[in-house]
Amino acid sequence: MKNEENISYCGLYCKLCRFTYKPADVLKRDLEHRHGENFAKNAPEFWKTLSMLAIEPKGNCRTDGCNDGFPCAIRQCAKERGMLTCPECELYPCTRIKTLARGSAYNMIFDGHRMKEIGVKAWLQEQEERVKDGFHYHMLQCEQCIVPTVGSEYDKD
User: Fold this and answer.
1) How far apart are CA 60 and CA 34, in angstroms?
2) What is the pLDDT of residues 79-97, one digit of tens each?
3) What is the Cα–Cα distance from 136 to 26, expressed in whole angstroms?
4) What share of the chain is helix, strand, coil (3-state, %, to 5)?
């Protein structure tokens, strides 16, 4: 299925995460979104410096690239259960997902239920539309996410 590799185990769409964008591009988009298109229009050195900071993403949680092999309890659980993504599981949303969702202004649990409701193929199309619109999760104000690690207090069903 097209773009299936961009669905994280927790049910987010990798292309909508700031870690899959060049940081300079994300910052530029955020600044323009918050302050208008003319923000720093007359500051080419500012944009040049941001561009030098840009890096290419290394992958996603399916390729162990997004978080460099971080012992994510969500990823481990989904793999053990043979799930493409957590919203497929009968226990969704479990403690691990609720813990991760707690730090986000974006309602990932709602989005997981949306995936269940319309199916993965239609959900992927919706996410690609979001990408085209320039949306990414970190445009919203979030608290620090707690990603449950294997063996932590948040690693339970």
Assistant:
1) 28
2) 999 999 999 999 999 999 9
3) 9
4) 50, 5, 45
